[in-house]
């Protein structure tokens, strides 16, 4: 499987693994499920510092754009995209300047 194929299928699989309640409802992550995802699926120190699983209330507020108390797949994708942008910024030293976008969490560290 090509690398980007693998990234996309892994994102979907991770979301469904943690969000699937087995009751036929639309998959969403509640606070506990989101905390579990962050603790178990993010191991890189650079990324762990961007979203702190210990402060789940703040993480939920940041991700839950529709304010329903759960994270849907679109909100989850936004989270992963933001983490990728932070990692890119750290690797390249470009982008991610604080204050550039709404709720931008990345800041260049020199």
From TrEMBL:
<feature type="region of interest" description="Disordered">
    <location>
        <begin position="91"/>
        <end position="110"/>
    </location>
</feature>
<dbReference type="GO" id="GO:0048306">
    <property type="term" value="F:calcium-dependent protein binding"/>
</dbReference>
<keyword id="KW-0106">Calcium</keyword>
<dbReference type="Pfam" id="PF13499">
    <property type="entry name" value="EF-hand_7"/>
</dbReference>
<feature type="compositionally biased region" description="Basic residues">
    <location>
        <begin position="91"/>
        <end position="101"/>
    </location>
</feature>
<dbReference type="InterPro" id="IPR002048">
    <property type="entry name" value="EF_hand_dom"/>
</dbReference>
<dbReference type="InterPro" id="IPR011992">
    <property type="entry name" value="EF-hand-dom_pair"/>
</dbReference>
<dbReference type="GO" id="GO:0005509">
    <property type="term" value="F:calcium ion binding"/>
</dbReference>
<dbReference type="GO" id="GO:0005615">
    <property type="term" value="C:extracellular space"/>
</dbReference>
<dbReference type="InterPro" id="IPR013787">
    <property type="entry name" value="S100_Ca-bd_sub"/>
</dbReference>
<keyword id="KW-0479">Metal-binding</keyword>
<dbReference type="InterPro" id="IPR034325">
    <property type="entry name" value="S-100_dom"/>
</dbReference>
<protein>
    <submittedName>
        <fullName>Protein S100-A5-like</fullName>
    </submittedName>
</protein>
<feature type="domain" description="EF-hand">
    <location>
        <begin position="51"/>
        <end position="86"/>
    </location>
</feature>
<dbReference type="InterPro" id="IPR018247">
    <property type="entry name" value="EF_Hand_1_Ca_BS"/>
</dbReference>
<dbReference type="GO" id="GO:0048471">
    <property type="term" value="C:perinuclear region of cytoplasm"/>
</dbReference>
<dbReference type="GO" id="GO:0046914">
    <property type="term" value="F:transition metal ion binding"/>
</dbReference>
């Amino acid at each position: 499987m090509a690398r980007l194929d693998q990234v996309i299928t892994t994102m979907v699989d991770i979301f469904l693994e943690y969000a699937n309640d087995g009751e036929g409802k639309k998959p969403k992550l509640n606070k506990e499920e989101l905390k579990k995802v962050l603790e178990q699926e993010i191991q890189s120190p650079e990324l762990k510092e961007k979203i702190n699983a210990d402060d789940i209330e703040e993480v939920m507020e940041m991700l839950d754009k529709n304010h329903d108390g759960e994270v849907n797949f679109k909100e989850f994708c936004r989270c992963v995209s933001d983490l990728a942008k932070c990692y890119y910024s750290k690797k390249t030293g470009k982008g991610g300047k604080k204050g550039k976008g709404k709720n931008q969490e990345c800041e260049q560290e020199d």
